[in-house]
Design brief:
Largest sheet: 8 strands, parallel
Strand content: 15-25%
CATH topology of the largest domain: TIM Barrel
Radius of gyration: 20 Å
Structural class: alpha/beta
Shape: globular
Strand order of the largest sheet: 5-6-7-8-9-10-11-12
Order of helices and strands: EEEHHHHEEHEHEHEHEHEHHEHEEEEE
Helix content: 25-40%
CATH superfamily of the largest domain: Enolase-like C-terminal domain
Distance between the termini: 20 Å
Number of strands: 16
Length: 355
């Protein structure tokens, strides 16, 4: 089963409501889709999310990386030789992690189809269903409370609350949401690098003193400020989740050695795909650090690949795969079933899409 061709396209999906964080505001998803063709007629699907403020990639750079560097490096290779494919994928161009992720997941899609099994089974098969949170975009207090109540009415009991634009107002936002949804809804707070270390300690400490019962705070300070992350982790009781600070297995090792976070958020667009993400999970597990699986603004194509990966790993204990739930429609048919907060894995081979 050899790779014969790779084609690049576009996948689009309008969002139900604008997605707002401390870094950006987005109304519609417009990502790069890829199709990897094999000599037996099978195809593998992948997706790359151009997120310039995080990975540094654009539509143009992703296309260039795939067509001019990645494609020539792996055309003609046997799908069964997946470790060799991933070695070439990693070495053929520096960084460009979203471009690599799209190809990686398409290769894994074909790899699982080669053995006529769903991908999560091939990767480990730890669980058959996942419970995801849903994102509450950063807005005024009243709008965030309204959005939180709507999410709870839809059956979500884990909310990921975006903050980081207004440190003073962030405390009010979280308190108002907690009061509105009650004590039984899990709240995760994501600052998207929006605070300084001292601001983070003060804000988190205030929320702790007010018994807001926050499960975790994600990436409170700038991704490059590992000492700042360590300072926040050491001076708060709430679990600190590293996101943008961890792209690679080496980043994960550095963070763990410095005790700069309690948890690690893995996103395929940061790691360059499933192959490198597995290394991070294993490093974290060996050091007693639990992981979250997250996503950028992605459609069902790449989020489904992430769901298969998450379902295969015991040490992925938190799920933030709400991308398809934020979209007005799905661009593909098949894959895992996104039923409210529950993501149910299917028994279809590969990632499970039908075209």
């Amino acid at each position: 089963m050899k790779i014969t061709d790779i084609q690049v396209g576009v996948v689009e999906a309008p969002l139900i409501t604008p997605f707002k964080t401390a870094l950006r505001t987005v109304d519609s998803i417009r990502n790069i889709s890829i199709t990897v063709y094999a000599d037996n007629g099978q195809i593998g699907l992948g997706e790359a999310a151009p997120t310039a403020v995080i990975t540094g990639e654009t539509h143009a750079s992703i296309r260039e990386a795939i067509m001019e560097y990645i494609k020539p490096a792996i055309i003609g290779m046997e799908i069964e030789d997946i470790a060799q494919i991933m070695e070439r994928l990693e070495k053929c161009i520096y960084k460009n992690t979203s471009a690599k992720a799209a190809v990686d997941m398409a290769i894994y899609d074909l790899y699982a189809k080669r053995y006529n099994a769903p991908l999560f089974k091939i990767l480990g098969g730890y669980r058959k269903a996942l419970i995801t949170d849903i994102t509450i975009s950063v807005n005024g207090v009243n709008e965030m409370v309204k959005d939180s109540l709507i999410a709870v009415e839809r059956g979500f009991n884990i909310l990921k609350v975006k903050v980081g634009k207004d440190p003073i107002g962030d405390i009010e936002r979280v308190k108002a949401i907690r009061e509105a949804v009650g004590p039984n809804v899990t709240l995760r707070v994501d600052a998207n690098q929006g605070w300084t270390p001292k601001q983070a300690v003060r804000i988190i400490g205030t929320l702790e003193d007010a018994d807001m019962n926050i499960e975790l705070v994600e990436q409170p300070v700038h991704y490059s400020d590992i000492e700042g992350m360590r300072y926040v982790t050491a001076n708060t009781m709430t679990h600190i989740l590293a996101d943008e600070s961890v792209f690679s297995p080496k980043d994960a090792l550095t963070l763990i050695e410095k005790r700069a976070a309690d948890l690690i958020n893995i996103k395929l667009m940061k790691t360059g795909g499933i192959y490198q993400a597995q290394k991070i999970v294993h490093i974290a597990e060996a050091n007693g650090i639990e992981c979250m699986i997250g996503c950028m603004l992605e459609t069902k194509i790449s989020v489904s690949a992430a769901a298969h990966f998450a379902a295969s790993q015991k040490n992925i204990t938190m799920i933030d795969l709400d991308g398809p739930l934020l979209c007005m429609n799905d661009p593909v048919t098949g894959g895992p079933a996104f039923d409210g907060q529950v993501i149910k894995m299917s028994s279809e081979p590969g990632i499970g899409f039908s075209l």
